[in-house]
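User: Just a sanity check before I run the rest of the batch. Below are the structure tokens for the first item. I only need the designed sequence back.
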């Protein structure tokens, strides 16, 4: 892992507990209300991704930057054959493994601490997805190429949009915590999908994000 990835890893290790609470809602009523307003698209991108993973039953998935494993575990719950979640932050991976064991999915879910570019899977996946990932990646092209290479059907991605009121606020807020954030125009995403070698793609505006489904 290079220095930038190490910095991201340290940031997400320290934020893992707070991040999990965005989904579990174990917060004050006021904080939950703020999340419902300002993090609405986190819930929307989740709906978008799970819907676009269909058909789920029996298929294999790669969750890149799996965080606390919400998506991976939901796919297992819906009957996925095998789900692999990878993340650079070991605290996130520990959360995933604990939840997977508690929910009885350890036979079908595997969680590995690694960067995608160092990950050597034994076989390909039907679908790979990277959600809340490209926000933190300075050079997304190698990651997108790798996602295409390991996916036989499609890859699903979410990119934070460049021209939103929230982008500069987020940039400054996270920079103060040592975390770089990156934003994307639609034109740049079009170029990235072409350069990564996807055969075709669809871009959907979801709140302050572009959600993309790209076919191998
Ligand atoms: C905002 S969280 C998103 C987690 C999950 N995908 C979700 O949407 O609930 C971002 C995650 O990406 C991970 N991450 C950041 N850069 C990464 C990289 N280069 N490779 C793998 N994971 C990375 C972080 O450790 C963190 O857990």
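Assistant: Here's the designed sequence for the first item:
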């Amino acid at each position: 892992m290079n220095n930038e990835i190490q910095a991201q890893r340290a940031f997400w290790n320290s934020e893992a507990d707070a991040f999990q609470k965005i989904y579990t809602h174990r917060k004050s009523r006021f904080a939950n209300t703020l999340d419902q307003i300002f993090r609405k698209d986190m819930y929307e991108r989740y709906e978008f991704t799970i819907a676009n993973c269909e058909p789920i039953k029996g298929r294999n998935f790669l969750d890149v930057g799996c965080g606390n494993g919400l998506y991976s575990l939901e796919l297992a719950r819906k009957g996925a054959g095998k789900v692999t979640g990878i993340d650079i932050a070991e605290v996130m991976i520990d959360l995933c493994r604990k939840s997977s064991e508690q929910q009885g999915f350890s036979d079908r879910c595997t969680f590995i601490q690694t960067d995608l570019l160092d990950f050597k899977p034994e076989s390909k996946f039907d679908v790979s997805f990277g959600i809340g990932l490209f926000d933190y990646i300075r050079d997304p092209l190698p990651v997108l190429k790798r996602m295409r290479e390991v996916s036989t059907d499609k890859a699903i991605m979410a990119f934070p949009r460049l021209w939103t009121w929230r982008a500069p606020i987020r940039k400054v807020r996270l920079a103060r915590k040592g975390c770089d954030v990156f934003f994307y125009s639609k034109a740049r995403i079009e170029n990235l999908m072409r350069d990564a070698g996807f055969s075709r793609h669809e871009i959907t505006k979801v709140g302050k994000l572009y959600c993309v489904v790209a076919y191998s």
